[in-house]
Amino acid sequence: MLDESTRNVARRATRLTEAGVLSVVGVVDDRRIGSAILRLRCRPGSVIDVGTALAELPQTRFVSLVSGSADCTAELCVADDALVDLIFRDIPAIDGVVESTTYPALRYFKTPQEWHVDVLTPQEVEGLLEQWTPLPERFQRAGETPSAEDERIIAAVAADGRATHAEIAAATGISESTARRRLDSLLRRGILRIRAEIEPAYLGLPIEAALWLRVAEREVEAVGHALARMPKVRYVLAVAGDHQLVAQVAVPGRSELYEILREIGGLSGIRAIETTMTLLPVKRGFIIKRDGLVDRWAGPIG
């Protein structure tokens, strides 16, 4: 597909992984889990410590230090009943937190797993997608939910998307054949995906920003879909709160950020756009980062 031998691709991927540039993880479909976007203001001089403390929480998928009206943003991946303790007890208890605002996610128009950088041809992208065809519609119609066995497999694959069937079996206490069959089912149903995580800066997109959009209610659906079609938009979701949509973009430079803000600002229904630029990514995809490189997994296990 890429006109490269399997051995050559594996060798290069291993080199990137060992260097901390690339990580391969298992991710659960964002539409299956509860999530919320968090904005924090911190006491002067405490922002890095607050970001570090947030990154240690297994419920945070990403943590970034940002410019603008907030000092730190994060995504919380928890069910609604667990969200209460986090936002009213655990997070306010972090030394240095002055104020926090929580925006529960209502609907994803585009998830990070659906974002593809323009480095592959359309034919190559199509070929890769054809190998595993998720069937979320069938999954939803059938009313299926992952079994306890499935959940153990998901936890085993989450930290290392390259785990072998034997390693999954050993971690979950099931046979290797069962691990193979259940993992295949999870992938084909679209419940679990294997994703390579890499900092956008390594792909020529060093400028990242979160866009907090106020949108006329009648236009939220149309604007959400329009944003999802933009190649530089990594994700977009509808939220509850004083903003209706939150999107993240990754671009080559500040002039390109200016241009995409102009483009988005011209969409029908846009009332205001607030921009917070990422200054330091502390955690991404449940992985803590040090100087832009993979440090360690810090997500939910079991």
Automatic annotation (TrEMBL):
The transmembrane segments are none
| GO CC, any one term | cytosol
Q: Which domain of life is it from?
A: Bacteria
- Annotated HTH asnC-type domain ranges read 150-206
Q: In the UniProt record, does the keyword Isomerase occur? A: no
Task: State the UniProt keywords alphabetically.
Answer: DNA-binding, Transcription, Transcription regulation
One of the protein's GO biological processes: response to amino acid
What species was this sequence derived from?
Streptosporangium saharense
List the InterPro entries.
Answer: AsnC-type_HTH_dom (IPR000485), Dimeric_a/b-barrel (IPR011008), Tscrpt_reg_AsnC-like (IPR019888), Tscrpt_reg_AsnC/Lrp_C (IPR019887), Tscrpt_reg_HTH_AsnC-type_CS (IPR019885), WH-like_DNA-bd_sf (IPR036388), WH_DNA-bd_sf (IPR036390)
Protein name (Swiss-Prot/TrEMBL)? Lrp/AsnC family transcriptional regulator for asnA, asnC and gidA
Give this protein's Gene Ontology molecular function annotations: sequence-specific DNA binding
Q: What is the lineage of its organism?
A: Bacteria, Bacillati, Actinomycetota, Actinomycetes, Streptosporangiales
